[in-house]
Amino acid sequence: MTDRDRLAAFLSTDPRDGGCDEALALLHAYADAYLQDPDEAARHRPSVAAHLAACGPCAEDLAGLLAAIAPR
Amino acid sequence: MPAAPDPDSAEWLRALRATGSERLAAERRLHTLLLGAARAEVARRNVRATIPGAELDDLAEQAADDAFMSVRRRLGEFRGESRFTTWAYKFAVLEVSGKVTRHTWRRPDRAVGVEDWSALRGRLGLQPEAASEWHELLAALRRAVDTGLTPLQRSVFVALMLDGQPLDVVAASLGASRGSVYKALFDARRKLLAVLVAGGHLTAGEARR
């Protein structure tokens, strides 16, 4: 990947991205669904999935929640 | 549409809405769960190098207390979209997230008001070579940032991409939500890409990749 590609990739946005507010409001529902089937969770809530793929802090919060609810 | 909660979640709701000793016992159980989740999240975020152990314990306890208050206050908002405990844990994770970020971020040692555009290379993971092409692209990007963005979008771009401030730190300093700061950067990125493509600095194909 060239520098131009990297810059273009950074500037590119996913129109399905629903933003932090929606993702955080649904994070608990997404996390329970993700634990069952990550692909199905993404299919069911594409705007949340698109956001979590782009937003580091929200993705880190999902990782924390998944760690909290993971079966021990 | 609200879903009927699963039996365990329904029992949590019933006990937390009860009175007297039953409610107190449920609240104690909930606080214990939230404290465990907050401590685990603090440990998972691996910030022991930047926050002393005693402060980490305080941070986890404060996060658990704040999460507990949020759950109590917002009990009526639980819609059964997840297990009750997942919904409650979310508050603990988000409290730890915000507190750890604000606690650990330190402003780089540089003069206030000086924008370090060279920092963008590292931030985007760009290669040290190909400097001449990059200089041209950077100059076009900088012009677009200076002339094409709103004052808020520009402030957010500079704070996140040049200063390297975490999103939650920028949000706190602006008195805004994480969502509104993310949206400002999202809109800024869209505008900047359009300007760079229109100016022939990037191709439409590169923009779609």
Give a quick account of the main beta sheet of chain A: strands, pairing sense, barrel closure.
Answer: none
CATH T-level topology of the largest domain in chain B: Rna Polymerase Sigma Factor, Chain: A
Indicate the CATH class of the largest domain in chain B: Mainly Alpha
Rg of chain A, alpha carbons: 14 Å
Domain count of chain A: the total is 1
| CATH architecture tag of the largest domain in chain B | Orthogonal Bundle
End-to-end Cα distance of chain A: 40 Å
Uncertain spans of chain B = none
Q: What is the CA-based Rg of chain B, rounded?
A: 23 Å
Overall pLDDT of chain B = 90
Provide the domain count of chain B: 2
Q: Hey, which two chains have the biggest interface?
A: A-B, 35 and 47 residues
What is the count of helical runs of chain B? 10
Task: Classify the secondary structure makeup of chain A into a structural class.
Answer: mainly alpha
Share of residues in helices of chain A:
over 70%
Features:
heterodimer; A: 72 residues; mainly alpha; 79% helix; 0% strand; B: 209 residues; Rna Polymerase Sigma Factor, Chain: A; Arc Repressor Mutant, subunit A; 71% helix
